[in-house]
Fold:
Amino acid sequence: MIELFDPLLVLAAVEKERCTALYGVPTMFIAEFTHPMFDMFDLSSLRTGIMAGSPCPIEAMKRVMNDMNMKEVTIAYGLTEASPVFTQTSVDDPIEKRVETVGTPLPHIEVKIVDPETGEELGPGEPGEICCRGYNVMKGYYKMPEMTAEAIDEDGWLHSGDLAVMDEDGYYSIVGRIKDMIIRGGENIYPREIEEFLHTMPGVKDVQVVGIPDEKYGEIVGAFIIREDGADILEEDVRDYAIQRIARYKVPKHVFFVDEFPLTASGKVQKFKLREMAVELLKKKEQS
Structure:
């Protein structure tokens, strides 16, 4: 039993106990397969597991399947108020669905995408707030009727606060948090899209994208990057890589290299702290 997450201890436990399944949030898996001693461990017993808790980078999912031998790993999505999972991929799903989506609704649970402003239900390919209804939804927050009314509408739909899109086959993909969406000069930018892209850049171990307050555009794009061991990529390298491949307004204006991200006790990245860090770092840069 590992009470406090440590990638080295997890890898050692998998080898010693011949574990067949491994569970965690993306940052945990990334810390495991990028560990300097990763290749020293025999993980051949691993077969399955679940990645959940925050958006799962496609490149990370591929490495978990290939490098960690977890060919039957699945992605689950939900929130505590939904007990907690309401969509999940299956080991029988096509490989592209398993690495790029959070699957389909679990049995006896309804899921829909709505316009966050109007509440109108949206169709395939249209991003909006993902909501669920069913036996899994909580009755409410204890002695907090107003908060409960904000989360669950009069028809019983639980509003997640997450942006998602459904494809033509009924599979859902998480775009990001509504509150994390960046609005730059009237353009809506989804951090998840830029994060997925930057994960393909050599030398990038992990990345988080946030909106930074800006007088001219309202918000601009900022990227926090953890480099792979030995990588010497610089801020201009990241921008050069991006400007050739994505829309110019999505290219990070500022790039910050860090050793770690601020995390919750359960391993989720605290983006609000990254935004605060960006503001402080830029303020110090201006004063220097």
